[in-house]
Amino acid sequence: MAAVTMVELSSGGDPVAEGLLELIKPAIQQLDVHVHSVRESQVELREHIDNLATELFRINEHQKVALDLDPYVKKLLNSRRRVVLVNNILQNAQERLRRLNHNVAKETARRKTMLEASGVFTPRSPSRP
To answer: What UniProt keywords apply to this chain's record, in alphabetical order (predicted)?
Structure first.
């Protein structure tokens, strides 16, 4: 699973940036977990389809009565192709989520640094109320 990393901010930073970060962070982490789960199930499904196609080929070769299983095998292979396509789409979506998460953290850190440099924001020590 792609690890979701966020820049941890000290209290007292830009409230808008921190609020945005705290709002987006759980959604991105939850979406990342779900995408990972779907990708794992897609891989399992692809393996089952491959096994079933192999078994159908074997049955067809050993069958005394000539049954035409080729259309079913073709349907299975077509399904497998679609599963692979969906898996690729999920991988791309997960990568975009990772980049979005990284960009949000980078922008938040940049704004915090900019505020600290301008003197508008002074980090509070944990001992001061």
So the answer is: Coiled coil
* pLDDT, tens only, 103-125: 888 888 888 888 888 876 655 55
Please list, in sequence order, all residues whose beta carbon lies within 8 angstroms of the beta carbon of residue 104, skipping any fewer than 6 positions away. 6, 20, 21, 24
Half-sphere exposure of 77 (CA within 13 A, CB side): 11
Burial class (CB in 10 A: 0-12, 13-18, 19+), 24: middle
What CA–CA distance (Å, rounded) separates 6 from 1? 16
